[in-house]
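Morning run. Coffee first, then this:
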Amino acid sequence: MTIKEIKEWLETCKELPAEVQALFMADARSGVQAVYRRWQRNQEKARKQQERWLEMSRYERELWKRGYRHIAGVDEVGRGPLAGPVVTAAVILPQDFYLPGLNDSKKVSPAQREVMYERIMEGAVAVSIAMSDAPLIDEMNIFQATLRAMHEAVRGLQVVPDITLNDAVTIPQLSLEQRPLIGGDGKSISIAAASIVAKVERDRLMKEYDRQYPGYGFASNMGYGTAEHLAALREKGPCPIHRRSFGGVLQS
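And here it is:
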């Protein structure tokens, strides 16, 4: 076989018998060795991703075994910024869903988040997004505004969940069974999916706000208190999406 033929063939293989691997290892052609080593690296990467998926789906698998059909992961993005809304998402994944690399949105690159967002939106049983804007955050405080948006996200699901897995919090006045998980966006595929959806939605919104309110750098800082953002606040003052109750907004 030519090196090209070997490469194309290996791309279709998930496993190789030991005797076939021995043949590749004995092949004197450097190109064959390179192709084979690349295949080994890809297989090792896939194995680790599968192990990580099994680890992150343990709560869901436990609940599915107990008869829970629809498990909603709930998470928020944007509690810390000086501007923009806090965005929450609730996501119900099917039992056969598989998305290698799914993780807490903060640990995934922007390009990967966009790809994962599309996969989640296409493959999920149900997705709901809700948010609390800056005036509501100023009125209620950020924690209460976050809980309110989480409640709205769960209530907005087109499929009623049997239970929710929440990142760290218990949502008040929600007549559903709940399980809060500390650091849940790195422990549960459902919460991680909600984290990805909320992050992509909020980032897209902040880029739109950057066009509406130029000069604050919202497209790059997403409303967080970077040096550029604080300098713009000192020069221009706050705009309508700034959280006036947050330190640094009116004091800059």
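The chain has ten helices and five strands. Good start to the day.
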